[in-house]
Every structure is written in C-alpha cells, then in structure tokens.
Amino acid sequence: MKAVVWARCATPEAHPVIAALQARLNASGEDVSFAVTCTGQHPEGKRGVRTYLAQIEPMLLLWVGGQLDAQTLIAAQDAGVPVIVIDVDTSALDAFTSRWFRSRSRTILGQLHAVFTRDQAGANAFVTAGAPPSRTHAVGVLEDPPDVLAHIETDRRDIAEALRSRPVWLATQTEPADVPTLAAAQRHAARRSHRLLLVVMAAHVEDGLELSERFRLLGLPASLRSVTPKPEEGVQVHVIDTPDELGLWLRLATVTLAGGTMTQAAAQDPFEAAALGSVLIHGPRTHPYTARYDRLVRAGATLQVDNQAALGRAVEALLSADRVAAMAMAGWDVTSRGAEATDRIVGLIRARLDDAGL
User: Fold this and answer.
1) CA atoms of 246 and 34, how far apart (whole Å)
2) Distance in angstroms (rounded) separating the CA atoms of residues 183 and 186
3) Which of 63, 182, 343, 349 has the fewest CB atoms within 10 Å of its CB?
4) Rounded distance, CA 202 to CA 242, Å?
C-alpha cells in the first residue's frame, strides 16, 4: 500500500523541494507519493479539509511555508493526521494568533508533530505561541540541496602535486568574448601573487583552442587541458576543454568567478562552488539562481563585482588566506543547512511510515 503525504505549499517555488523529498524516499525503497496543493488549490474550511483528507487518506500533512490556517490544522488533528510545519518564519503566526484565543491557539500548536523554521526568531515565536520546544527547530530555508559534483580523486591529487601549492582561481562558463576581462584581472591579481594561476573552463569545449590562443595574443602564456593535462609552472592560464570536470577544478580553486553573471548568459548555480569550499565572485546577473546568490551575499560568502574593472581587485582581495577561509566557511554553512533540514524531514517521514506500519 502506497503511503500519501499531503504537501500544502504556499508557493510553487516549493515544488522542486517536494520532488526532491519524494525522489530521496523512493530511492531508498520507501513507497511514498506526495499530493501537492498550492495557493488557490487548498481545500477551505473544516468541512472542505475533512472531505479532502477522506479522499487522499494521507499519513502526514507537510505544511510548507505561508501563514497557518487553524481550520486546516484542527481538521487534520481531528482526523489523526500528524502535521509537520516547515520553511516558515514569524509571519506564519500573524493571522493565526490574532484570530484565536491564546489558550486555543496554544492547544493547536502544541499538537504539531514538528516545526522547522527559517531562523531562530521564527523558532522562538512558535515556542512562545505554544509549539513544543523539543520539536521546534531553526534550520534555515528548506530547499533541494545541490548534488555534490563528482570528480576523479587520483586526478585531483596528481594536479595538486603538480601545482606545488600554487594559488588558483577559476572562471566558469567562459566565452571567447570574456578573455580580455579575465586577462586584465589575472595581470592585476598576479602583481600580488606572481605564481597565481587562472583556470578557465570553456563554456563550449570546442572553443578551448580559441580561448588559449586569445590569452597568448594578450601576452599570457596559456595551456590546453586536452594537450597538457597538468598546468606547468610557466603557464599563467590553463584552459579546460574536457567535459564534466567542474567538480575537479572547484576542489582545486580557492576562488571561482561564476560564469554568466557578468553577461546576459544564465548564471551558474552558486551552491555548486560553495558546497565544495570555493569562494564565489559574481556579477549582477544571477538568474535563475537569484535567491541562492542573495543568501550567500547575506552570509558574507561572496563578492559581487558590478563592472569588469573591479574583477582584478576582487581576485586580489581574496588572495588573503584568512579572508577566503572565513567566506568559504560561511558559504558551506549556507549550503549545508538546507541539506540538514531536508535530511531531518526525510527522517521524520520514515519514522511516520514505521509508526503506521507502511
């Protein structure tokens, strides 16, 4: 018998997270499906909610963001359906606590199975309003955590040995038109660190030779990964024209320029770099990952540059070991908290399945 979870989402942006939860559960052998509703689709009033619950027979209600609705919570609790509230802040309680007597609202909140808030202020507010302190946790924004990019460990070790502690910065999704900007930034930053190596990942592998030749014409010795697998000491630019190596070079580069953010191109997912400890420099064009970039900016985990001239100064600034270490830790914290929240919710759903004998 397939178990059903009702995911009541405040916005469509939660749908990828729900899809990721279901994929993780199904991959581990759990036979679970999610009935997802969004604003405009939710059943309304206790009678409407009771009818909907009778139709789908969920073993759990996952309340995802938005303001709490007492009628829905009461109907679920009356039907014996545990409720887990996730991805909420203090605003979730605004209408709920203002419309109900304090003793009644405390009783409803006290029966919640678990609460996961975006920040500590939200957790404090829920506990003050009546949620169980032992089951209320501040875990950050719930999201689909990025897959950690793969790499070949023997390649990483060999290249790291060849680099001999040489500082490395990486530019992803590089187009031929980007070469003058990157060359100028490399020259500027190399004044402080003469062994600095720029690794350029071609947006299209067939452009690798053109990229390397353009750097040479601008006076920067360049090598091509497909020809010279390990960058030599006299090279200032190493162009990556081999596929599926982003995970490798993110592990070797202390600093990464997020490709696409200085142009009209689609931006790189910033969590790919942050999850591997590479500090991001990025431009103002962050679509379609604007929310992720904003979170990293608020955490002090990135440097934004608004023009080409600022890029070299940003790379130079991040040659400071203390500064880049602090920023890398902040970025890792942002990415890992989303993964932690997802892990905990998956664990609760599994526990509920066991309790229900499913």
Assistant:
1) 33
2) 5
3) 343
4) 9
pLDDT in tens, the chain (358 residues): 578 999 999 988 888 888 888 888 887 788 888 999 998 899 988 899 999 999 999 999 999 999 998 889 999 999 999 999 998 999 999 877 666 567 778 889 999 999 999 889 999 999 999 999 999 998 877 766 667 899 999 999 999 999 999 999 999 999 999 999 999 999 999 998 999 999 999 999 999 999 999 999 999 999 999 999 999 999 999 999 999 999 999 999 999 999 889 887 788 899 999 999 999 999 999 988 888 899 899 889 999 998 778 999 999 999 888 899 999 999 988 887 767 777 888 888 888 888 766 5
Question: Which class for 264: exposed (0-12), middle (13-18), buried (19 or more C-beta within 10 A)?
Answer: exposed
Same domain, 214 and 274: yes
d(CA 302, CA 252): 18
For residue 161, the surrounding DSSP H or E stretch is helix 153-163
Please report whether residue 58 resides in a domain: yes
Same domain as 204, residue 223 = yes
CATH number of the domain to which 59 belongs: 3.40.50.2000
Residue 199's domain spans which residues? Answer: 153-319
Question: Which residues on adjacent β-strands are paired with residue 335?
Answer: none
Q: Do 91 and 222 have their domain in common?
A: no
The verdict on 187 and 295 lying in the same domain is: yes
The separation between the first and the last C-alpha atoms of the chain, rounded to the nearest angstrom, is 7
Helix (H) or strand (E) holding 53: helix 45-56
Cβ–Cβ < 8 Å for 291, 268: no
Same domain, 315 and 349: no
